[in-house]
């Protein structure tokens, strides 16, 4: 895809960040924080598919020293730059660039590396085959220090993706997913047999946000990481649901999460270079 081609996110723009206020997105944020924090002290981070810079700004708050963000959507990058300008303390530690991370990264990005961490929060799900994801991992590994680490938010790494996709097809399951704020529709199987075309809906107000991506099989992620230059073992972190007190911080009770473990909408992937 060309960097200049319009993307679905150019149309969504800043409204995308409204999804981050949903309880399911807050759950995602807390689990990412738990996974990335051990590596984060004074770290220099490359944030691929950075969007409006939501996680870039949080990474600074959590202890990183510098963040370089890349996104294919110029609209998203413009929003990230405007948010950074308003951050008096952090703006000198944030930079954002337009780029397609399935292709070699822009020179101005690589010149700021190598990086301690590459973050891919909803990045790998834009690969519809192992070859494309392998190209993504080549960019990741080439940007990392020799002892660097990749931390990603991905679709749920189901051991049986076909059964997981089928689970989402009933009316009852669709209603339950909407309850959590984020619905995933498994539209069709990919012709290559590697996974599914998906449609994600963020049930935001006043207007829902919809976008398309892909859910590849767990083994595709693991193979792509290895073939893309990552030498460490792929770790899939267990998703930890909030306790009663933390659920209240989300604006819901602990009973809100009943049934979520049957249909988690994300996974946390960690792999060292």
From TrEMBL:
All copies of domain Methyltransferase, residue ranges: 43-174
CDD domains for this protein: AdoMet_MTases
Database matches in Pfam families: Methyltransf_31
InterPro entries noted in UniProt: Methyltranfer_dom, SAM-dependent_MTases_sf
Record's protein name: Methyltransferase domain-containing protein
Species per Swiss-Prot/TrEMBL record: Cladophialophora chaetospira
Lineage: Eukaryota, Fungi, Dikarya, Ascomycota, Pezizomycotina
